[in-house]
Amino acid sequence: MKQYTVVMLWAFILSGFIGFSQTSQTAIAEDFKPSTVNQPGQEYPQVNSQGYARFQILAPEAKSVVVSLGLGGAKGGTVLAKGEDGIWRGTTAGAMDEGFHYYHVTIDGGVFNDPGALNFYGSTRWESGIEIPAHDQDFYALKNVPHGNVQQILFPSKSTNTSRRAFVYTPPGYHKDKSKQYPVLYLQHGWGEDETAWSNQGHVNLIMDNMIAEGKIKPFLIVMTYGMTNEIKYGGLASFKIEPFQTVLTEELIPYVDSNFRTLANQTNRAMAGLSMGGMETKSITLNKPEIFSHYALLSGGTYKPEDIKDKSKVKLIFLSCGSKERPDGIKDAVSTLKNAGFNAVPYISENTGHEFQTWRRSFKELAPLLFKE
Questions:
Q1: In terms of domains, do 230 and 120 share one?
Q2: pLDDT score at 13
Q3: What is the pLDDT of residues 247-263, one digit of tens each?
Q4: What is the 3-state composition of the chain as percent helix, strand, coil, each rounded to the nearest 5?
Q5: Which first-to-last residue range defines the signal peptide (predicted)?
Q6: H/E element holding 293?
Q7: Residues whose CB is less than 8 angstroms from the CB of residue 46 and which lie 6 or more positions away in sequence, other chains included
């Protein structure tokens, strides 16, 4: 598990540098449009129908400008060329994977964000973001359907001697029917991210809204909080201790949510899931606290073995997923073993994606209908 997690974590750290399919022999279609996550009114960065990205950076005094997204142009990033107008321009050498990617700009050795793009918290800093159009993006599109609410809560934490933050998704209709109670999914981000990731980068609220409107899922609450992971540096996972976060989650956050929201406050109606390092946290806590959670999901975050689980009767679902560019055979083999041992285990492999948010968006879409089934 540790070796697998280190590999996956390192892949996540470098997620801005993977995901290329080299297509330099293909003519680049000149149908570039502004990325959908640009700053208001900003024309660049742009993306085309093939998945190429194009950048423009105004830096008239600079001697070197490199965009650290993919392998475009040179190892380590896309090298931009300076024009007589002081604007640096460049296009990736190949098409990016569909979906969301972090990136930043290195100007004469200094690291900056692209002023044309919105910022997203990832890699332990606010990074620029770009969205490569996906063929299946409709499931997380903003549509004219009833919408739920994502609200910030501040909950007291005696163990850390402070108030901590979480975001709670409540489905459409939650505030109208005051008698209805809901199951709860506790959903964790990956290393370098925080509690904003699943709603900002993952669009989990829009995925929920759309699937509820289509009648594909049973409505439930989602709680997203910081996993206390970003102090862990690469190579330091062997010393990571789950207990501090486990205390915050199980002894402080869950009781607060159950006291302040209309939840079905029992093990049968409580799930935990996480991507990447959040998957590692999910595995550890679900195994340590089987009396709290009944549905487990690891998204590019490892696997379970039958012998890991002491009481099979307490586990209603084990969902394991990853991208096809990760280790899909490991997921398939683990699920087969779990099924043979009598577990309700479900695999999902996201085609043509790696350790990135399109994998996890798709994974959540497959997971949600499986949760809290009668």
A1: no
A2: 38
A3: 999 999 999 999 999 99
A4: 25, 30, 45
A5: 1-29
A6: none
A7: 32, 33, 34, 35, 53, 54
Residue pointed to by tokens 């039958």: 306
Same domain, 149 and 129: no
Domain co-membership, 231 together with 154: yes
Full domain range(s) for residue 202: 139-370
Q: Phi/psi of residue 193, each to 5°?
A: -105, -175
State how far the Cα of 84 lies from the Cα of 210, in Å rounded to an integer: 48
Q: Could you tell me which residues are beta bridge partners of residue 296? A: 272, 318
Q: Using one digit for the tens of pLDDT, what is the confidence trace for 59-83?
A: 999 999 999 985 333 346 899 999 9
Q: What is the pLDDT of residue 26?
A: 74
Q: 299: which residues sit within 8 A by CB, 6+ positions away?
A: 273, 274, 275, 276, 278, 279, 321, 322, 359, 360, 363, 364, 367
pLDDT score recorded for residue 230: 84
pLDDT per position as a tens digit, 86-140: 999 999 999 999 999 999 999 999 999 999 999 999 989 999 999 999 999 999 9
Does residue 45 have a cis bond before it (omega within 30 degrees)?
yes
The CATH number of the domain holding residue 266 is 3.40.50.1820
Burial of 78 (0-12, 13-18, 19+ CB in 10 A): buried
Count of H helices and E strands in the chain?
8, 22
Contacts for 86 with CB less than 8 Å, ≥ 6 apart = 58, 59, 60
Q: How many domains does the chain have?
A: 2
pLDDT > 90: percent of the chain: 86
Q: How far apart are CA 191 and CA 230, in angstroms?
A: 6
Residue range 44-59, pLDDT digits in tens: 999 999 999 999 999 9
